[in-house]
Design goal:
Strand order of the largest sheet: 1-2-3-4
Shape: elongated
Largest sheet: 4 strands, antiparallel
Strand content: 5-15%
Radius of gyration: 23 Å
Helix content: 55-70%
Distance between the termini: 68 Å
Number of helices: 10
Oligomer: single chain
Structural class: alpha+beta
């Protein structure tokens, strides 16, 4: 490998044997070296070959403001995610996590906890991803000796979710807020009839995640309005009424129309959720 640009004594942009741009990290790997020099392979701890020029450019900007240690921690977390889950993890999460970890560690050092008003919903909606975020917190503690707060774990959960769903980051936040509102409507309609530990509830939550993605993202498509009704209104009036309230809430608060087919699928899940006919 040949050095293309030196960031500091420990980080450089280089070209590998195939001509690809990579970022190399290692203690003293750039000491006394400049562009055009060969990289001492014995000093290299990690090589990052992120796909796409945008990711390389983002990485370059990031390395100007954070310690490479955070990048190594983020890479270790991503390796854990791929090892301990079947989630399709996008490489871009490495950069987002490194940036977030650097900021969260600075907050923890100052004793500042960033409020996460959606923490309850995040833990509730993304249980598997939150468990992975807890493992990420363990890795951060092992490497830095600092525990991040549960609020920060919630933010890490959102990074994990965002890396596995084709959804813009800002839409993900709105989706969580939307689902929170929908669950409030369902709780008001059914009360204790909803078993939040049931498989039907887990399926309903998963349906809401993709429902929210479809109605929030203009590049996604809602269920086709030509889909035949799964259930009849006269047979399940309460479920239809609840679905109508959900649609009205979404249309009022998020200015997005909900198709009749989407309402039909909501009814189907609501009926399964309560376990009995209305």
């Amino acid at each position: 490998m040949v050095i293309k640009r030196v960031y500091n004594n420990n980080v450089a942009l280089a070209t590998d044997e195939s001509g690809r741009e990579v970022v190399v990290i290692g203690r003293g790997v750039c000491f006394g070296r400049r562009a055009g020099d060969a990289v001492d392979a014995s000093l290299v701890e990690k090589v990052f070959s992120l796909q796409g020029q945008d990711n390389v450019s983002r990485l370059e900007r990031l390395l100007k403001s954070i310690s490479p240690e955070y990048l190594l921690i983020a890479e270790e977390i991503v390796a854990m995610l791929r090892r301990e889950s079947s989630l399709p993890i996008d490489d871009g999460i490495i950069l987002a996590l490194a940036d977030h970890i650097s900021l969260s560690i600075e907050r923890e050092k100052r004793g500042v906890t960033l409020a996460n008003p959606m923490l309850f919903e995040i833990k509730h909606l993304y249980r598997k991803e939150f468990a992975l975020a807890e493992r990420a917190a363990e890795i951060i503690h092992e490497r830095l000796g600092i525990w991040v707060s549960e609020e920060e774990m919630g933010f890490i959960t959102l990074h994990i979710v965002n890396a596995t769903m084709s959804q813009r980051p800002d839409n993900l936040i709105f989706s969580v807020e939307m689902i929170k509102g929908i669950l409030g409507i369902v709780a008001q309609a059914y009360g204790e009839r909803v078993d939040t530990e049931s498989l039907s509830y887990e399926r309903f939550l998963r349906h809401l995640q993709f429902f929210a993605q479809r109605v929030m993202d203009s590049e996604s498509s809602q269920a086709d309005s030509t889909v035949p009704a799964l259930l009849e209104r006269e047979d399940y009036p309460d479920a239809f009424a609840c679905a109508d309230r959900i649609a009205a809430y979404v249309e009022q608060t998020h200015k997005t129309h909900v198709s009749s087919a989407e309402k039909s699928y909501l009814v189907y899940h609501l009926v399964n959720l309560v376990g009995v006919s209305d």
